[in-house]
Amino acid sequence: MAHRLEPLFRPKSVAFIGGSNLNPALKYHRDLGFEGPTWVVNPKYETLQGYPCVPSIEDLPEVPDLAFVAIRREAAIEAIAALRKMGCRAAVCNAAGFAETGTEGGDLQARLVAAAGDMAVLGPNSVGLVNFVDPMAAMMDQFGVHSVPKGVAIVSQGGGLLCDAVFSDRGLAITHMVGGGNQAVTGLEACADYLLDDPRVTAVGLSFEGLRDIAGLRRAAVKALKLGKPIVAIKFGRTEAGSRAAASHTASMTGAGAAWEALFDRLGIISTASESEFFETLKLIDSGQIPKGRRALVASVSGVLGVMLADHLSAGGFDLPQPTGERAARLRDLLPSIATPCNPQDVTMAAWNDTERQTAIYSALLEEGYDLALMVQNYPRDGMWDVSEYAAQVEALGAACRGRDVAALQIAPMVDCFPADARDHTQSLGLAAMQGLDECIRALGHAVWWRERRETLLAARPERLSEVPVAAPEPGARHDEAAAKAMLSAAGVAVPASRVTQPERAAEAAAEIGFPVALKALDARLLHKTEAGAVRIGLASAGAVREAVEAMRAEMARHVPDIPLNAVLVEAMAPDIVAEVMASVTHDPSVGPVMMIAGGGIEAELWNDSTLLAAPFERAEIARALDRLKVAERLKGWRGRPAGDREAALDALEALAAFALAEGAEEIEVNPILVGRKGALAVDAVLKLAERKERVA
């Protein structure tokens, strides 16, 4: 059975619905060479751009596979309803003025969705799509007339990035370009999922402000991991100002940047921060030159360029091992007398344009077992120099790398110093042709990260990544600390021994537990007890407890007069504390369940030592997140201090995460988890569960 998006991407026939505004789209469709039947629906013309016109959708001679609808919004809804009724399976709604404009437009968009039914529909507010491997364009913009045998597919919410992809002089081979617009019916995730199955697509570039089907993204990410085809993302609207602009542009839910980064990391999706970085990363992946490790060899005929590249590689986490032993001795015989065996290797101008000599030099260097080899040189502008003189360097590196398990690249540090013919020559030799120093280093880092991340995720049953519930939990009531801890304890989170009692009996409860104790006011409304004067710690006697109760009553009357001191929690103090860890699980409206882990205590926000993890919350992933934090050094035994019980901390975090997902917690926070030399205890908790769960608890 054909994929439901097949008629969108590979239609056998196309109908365009609109007026003279269709002229650019029709011309591009014709010039690109679509071979199937094409009609135009317009009552005023007999032909447009040489295509026959019919007065209405009902007058079409056949049911089209795909319709491009470029008429006013109300009429577009009626047209899509008529197309669906006659059996058309896909449409591009170019009309704008829907949810991106506010309430009225949102109502119209809902009508559009209803009219589309089970059709595949891009838009509304979509520029369209173009296919360069099975030539077809249903697109308002012009992206050049050409075809490619393979390359990357770019799926973008807006058309601007698609234009930049073809306007920029980078030599990126593109198979498909898709503008999703408002994604009211068919989302970018579904398009990416479909395109990953195409054997001619080597990677998918995903550009967006917001996505609506996170479950669909998860499924596509799992497919990408299994197929070995990276998804490279660029997310716009990461800041508050960017989110406001995105909302006014497409009415999409954009969300916080940190939550999206956590989701990308969890799914093995490469995240980029600029268009140049996005395009260069896609180009590197399409070239197939993905390093298997971080041991880099730098070659040049310019000492300055080599040193500059070495600095950037080192800062990017790559190693530059030096040639050793017999290889270094052999290099001394091969190199010009003014050169020294080293990495980066400057062969000097004495070996300029000497392919045979440079090949021997690079071959000797590569016997050290590098993971990647990089030739660095900028090219002159047309007419300034005979660029053929620059060929020897890259030909030598290509010859030396041939047959070796090493990624090979040529880098022009200046993005505009790599002309198209030189790029083509480089690529013909099997090297990636990279432009821009910073962009290239980030692309290399992304590629190595993806290779390593993919291996990890594939080893841990990647299907789990698509099994995470994405629906938001039902709103619920907040539990007081004692009730929250009781539920956490039942779920396997260790908590201190404690008693709930009236303030007047706190000293008696403390004696039963054993001194020293902590004393806390008990009320679900108390989210920050320290600021309210509602907590005392280290109470070593019954008298100290009684004094603490009176002081607490007075401070609460001053700071939170609407919360009386009616009940207290008396708790054993945790011994031998090495570090404090804070953890919370919430439901992000854009990406679903996320877990925050941080250095804990009252200074958690001050130190900004935190990280986010997207579900599923497996132990290995929790450990990986914990190790990103500064507090991890304390757990290891910082500067000779005792080490903390890291495994006990992971036990607590793992149990907390499992409880949150199993119970559909709206909000859960433990701050802090006190990690001792042995054991870890959750000593404060905030918890909101859906009403249906409260009845079960």
UniProtKB/TrEMBL annotation:
UniProt keyword terms in alphabetical order: ATP-binding, Ligase, Nucleotide-binding, Tricarboxylic acid cycle
Protein name (database record): Acetate--CoA ligase family protein
Coiled-coil annotated residue ranges, if any: none
Highest taxon listed in the record's lineage: Bacteria
GO-annotated molecular function: ligase activity
Originating species: Albidovulum salinarum
InterPro entries: ATP-grasp (IPR011761), ATP_grasp_subdomain_1 (IPR013815), CoA-bd (IPR003781), NAD(P)-bd_dom_sf (IPR036291), Succ_CoA_lig_flav_dom (IPR032875), Succinyl-CoA_synth-like (IPR016102)
Cytoplasm among keywords: no
Keyword DNA damage tagged: no
Annotated ATP-grasp domain residues: 485-521
